[in-house]
Specification:
273 residues; alpha/beta; 2 domains; eight-stranded parallel β-barrel; binds 3-methyl-2-oxobutanoic acid; binds sodium ion; methyltransferase; methyltransferase activity; pantothenate biosynthesis
Length: 273
Amino acid sequence: QQTVRRHTPRSIAALDAPIVVLTAYTTPMARLLDPHCDMLLVGDSLGMVVYGMESTLGVSVDMMVAHGQAVVRGSEKACVVVDLPFGSYQESPQQAFRTAAEIMARTGAGCVKLEGGQEMAETIHFLVQRGIPVMGHIGLKPQAVHAHGGFRTVGRGDEADQVLRDALTVEQAGAFSVVIESTLEPLARAITEKLSIPTIGIGASPACDGQVLVVDDMLGVTATPPRFVKTFASLGADIDQAAAAYAQAVRTRAFPTARECVGMPADHTADNA
Ligand code: KIV
Ligand code: NA
C-alpha cells in the first residue's frame, strides 16, 4: 500500500504556491478536507464553533487533545497544527513547553500555534530550540478579546507599528509561519513583504502567502459569520431542508419503508447477502 507523505512545518514553509488552510475539528470533516488542504488547523475556535461558547477563553487542553486526535486520524496529507488554548502557555516558556509537548505526544500533531507577538517571542524561541515547530498568530488575538475590547479590526494608527514589530519578532524567534487575523490590508501586505516565513491571512488580505477560514463559516453553517468570510457552500440551508424533510417523513410515516427495514416481508437484502 502506498504511503502518503504528510506535509511538515518545513515543507509548508518551503511552498511557494498560495498555502491552503482550513480549520477542522472532527474526523469525517478532516477526511473531506485533507485532499484539498496543505494544513488543517485544529483551532481553539472550536470552543465557539462546536461548543457554543462566547469566546475561546473556556477551551481546555483536553478539548484540544480530543479534537486534535480526531483530525490527525482523519487526515494523511495535510500538516495538522493544534492551537494552545488560553491559560496553557502564557505564564512561562516552561509552561508552554509542557503543554505543547503534551498536545503533540497525545495527538501526533507535528506543530502547535500560539497567539502573541513580542510578548511571546521568548516562549516561541524556547519551544523551537527544543524541537517544537511553532506557528505564530498576530493581529486580532481572540484569546485577548477582552484586552482588544471585542472582536474588531486591528492595526489602525499606532497599533500598526506594534503589529509589524510583533510579526518581525515572531519570525526572529523561529516561528515557521504566522497567522495574521483581522488587520487592515496595507498592514498585512507590509508584513508579508517584510517576512520570509509564510503569512496566513484570515480577514487580513489577499497579499498574504496563504489563507485560512473557519470551516463552518465557509460552508455556510455559521448563522452570522464575520464580514470577511466568503461562503463556498450553503450547508446550513441544506441541513435545515434535510431535517424538515426527515421530520415530515417520520410524521407522515413515509419513513421508514420496507426498504429501510430489516426482516419485513418486502425486504430481500438478507436473502441476497
Ligand atoms: O482558532 C482558530 O480557528 C484560529 C484561526 C481563525 C486562525 O486561530
Ligand atoms: Na485560534
